[in-house]
Amino acid sequence: MKSLIVFFLLGMASHTYAQSSNVGRVQIGVNFSPDVCFRTLQNNDGSARSEFVIKQNNEREIPKFGYTTGANVCFNLSSFFSLETGIQYANKGYQTKYLPQDPNLNFPVPEPNMPDKIKFIYNFHYVDIPLKANFMLGTNRLRFLASVGLTVNTFISGTEKSVYVYSDHRKRSTNPTNYDYNRINLSPTISFGVDYQINSNMNLRIEPTFRYGVLKIIDTPVTGYLYNGGLNIGYYYGL
């Protein structure tokens, strides 16, 4: 008798879910997020020299544009709650302002003639594995969405792009960085947005998203913590 009751309740729950949600239990998707990326700096050794380096870098470094993109799988546990994971590629980092060329700064110069100004773009390339919980509000095609989660960031490589500005042209060069960056980071992630049900199989999500790396990127007297915020756009298909 107890088995029949449990079976009946499970059947009712499944029927209620099917009535309240037209998407499948499992969805696969793709996403792209144009991001604004930057870093915070920390004085690891407490020295006045490190404090001076931080002050100098904060005066000349600014955010840069990056992006996050990849594939996802979403497990819909109810009409208002789901778990999501996947694999992503992320380009993070920061850049300098355009700086006047100064021989005393020992900037690399690609030609004998000095450029008028120069800037550097620091790119950090990661493979990300996110795990997040999604909470839905609403029963119509357009629903509100809130997500919280944690992303494991695996460092792949770093590059430094130099932009040289001359009076009549610009020159760019990109080179790998040789610093011993830490391979693993963790980024708590939060987002708020909307989910639009296109039809019984397809959904479109738009989520302003913020990610912050809580582990330092390198073990040096001055280290950094990468973060980025962007507009994540995802397309999902129910199986």
Describe the structure.
The chain is mainly β and 239 residues long. The protein has a domain at 27-93 and 125-157 and 179-238: Porin, CATH 2.40.160.20. The protein is built from 2 helices and 11 strands. The protein has helices spanning 2-20, 48-60; strands at 26-43, 61-62, 64-76, 81-96, 99-100, 117-137, 142-165, 170-176, 184-197, 202-212, 222-238. An 8-stranded antiparallel barrel has the order 1-3-4-6-7-9-10-11. A hairpin with a 4-residue loop joins strand 7 and strand 8 (170-176). The two termini are 34 Å apart. The model is unreliable at 1-20 (pLDDT under 50).
Quick structural summary:
By secondary structure, the protein is mostly beta strands. The protein has helices at residues 2-20, 48-60, and strands spanning 26-43, 61-62, 64-76, 81-96, 99-100, 117-137, 142-165, 170-176, 184-197, 202-212, 222-238.
- Percent of residues in helices: 10-25%
SS-based class: mainly beta
- Overall mean pLDDT stands at 89
Radius of gyration computed on alpha carbons: 23 Å
Question: Count of DSSP helices?
Answer: 2
Give the biggest beta sheet: 8 strands, antiparallel, barrel
Work out the strand percent.
over 45%
Number of strands: 11
Strand order of the largest sheet: 1-3-4-6-7-9-10-11
**Helix and strand succession?**
HEHEEEEEEEEEE
Regions with pLDDT < 50 over 5+ consecutive residues?
1-20
Name given to the CATH architecture of the domain at 27-93 and 125-157 and 179-238: Beta Barrel
- Stated plainly, the CATH topology of the domain at 27-93 and 125-157 and 179-238 is called Porin
So what's the CATH class of the domain at 27-93 and 125-157 and 179-238? Mainly Beta
Which geometry do the CA atoms define? elongated
Separation of the first and last Cα atoms: 34 Å
